[in-house]
Amino acid sequence: MTGYKTRQRELILDYLKNSDKPHVTAGDIAAHLRETENVGTATVYRQLDKMVTDGLVRKYSLDGGACYQYVGGGGDCHEHFHLKCLNCGALIHVDCEFLSGLGPHILEHHGFQVDNSRTVMYGLCRKCREGAK
Amino acid sequence: MTGYKTRQRELILDYLKNSDKPHVTAGDIAAHLRETENVGTATVYRQLDKMVTDGLVRKYSLDGGACYQYVGGGGDCHEHFHLKCLNCGALIHVDCEFLSGLGPHILEHHGFQVDNSRTVMYGLCRKCREGAK
DNA sequence: CTAAGTGCAAAATGTTTGCATACTT
DNA sequence: AAGTATGCAAACATTTTGCACTTAG
Fold first, then answer.
1. Which structural domain, as residue segments, surrounds residue A53?
2. A16-55 per-position pLDDT tens digit
């Protein structure tokens, strides 16, 4: 039930795997592949849907729309946090051991299982903090 | 700076306060208030924006669009964390020392100043985690 | 050959904006 | 009176769907 292996599917997967952006939207993929490979928008959405269903890709909603991230078959090894600057809008990718302990702490002490891929912390980045006062 | 007190604003606030839905979208509010009170869609969005800016209402993105939740003006929400259950919609207020160390850690190690009053962590609450098994 | 996948264009959602009018203070 | 807020409609942005055609297995 995995479906066919098509050129378009591989292109989308490649884009997800090789992107260095912190967040990839369907629009990003569609725009790029339309230009370079003439892939249709609908195909991008339909393939992403399948990949999410198969657990190959994770989908999460962010303010400007849904984002997709390749996670492979391995499951939920993604332990990074997102910090979004309320002033300049920068999205910062953070990975550190203190933060990795956060999820387990909340689960153990508060009975709540945090989904890091859906969580964004808001505030002010260094530049905006120093610049704006 | 707070803006005028209008009939529409009060209606929106009332809807948010009295709704028993787990998630309230701008569309929910707009549809209801258009029918019963002839309030325009744009007004709903504009008022919600202001309420979010004022810290009176919390906004979070979910798959079908953005959702809004009344949290009141009590400034004490700056001091603790919020956990939002993606399943039942419960908003849990958490206050503990481990979490209190989170802000300082991020500020010191990552140069980012987290605004707790605007940050919500998503996941599953205890009830929904157990129920889903 | 058959079922699944594709591109296009249109439609369905969700959100924002321009503008003339109405309301709050 | 001055400054906001409102309703409407049009503009935008994102995602979905109908359909005829192509392609993988």
1. 7-75
2. 999 888 779 999 999 999 999 999 999 999 999 999 999 8
Integer CA distances (angstroms), B52 to B13, B30, B72, B100, in order: 12, 17, 11, 23
Residue A65 CA and nucleotide D10 C1' are separated, in Å, by 22
Helix (H) or strand (E) holding B27: helix B26-37
Residues A55, A86 within the same domain:
no
B2: in domain: no
Statement: the CB of A65 is under 7 Å from strand D: yes
Model pTM score: 0.72
| CB of B45 nearer than 7 A to strand C | yes
Q: Rounded to the nearest 10 degrees, how much is the dihedral formed by the CA atoms of A71, B125, A81, B97?
A: -150
Of A residues 40-59, those with CB within 7 angstroms of nucleic strand C are 40-43, 46-47, 50
Mean pLDDT by 10 residues, chain B (133 residues): 91 94 90 95 97 88 83 63 84 76 79 83 86 59
Does the CB of B38 sit below 7 A from strand C? no
Total domains in the fold of chain A: 2
CB contact (8 A) between residue A123 and residue B115: yes
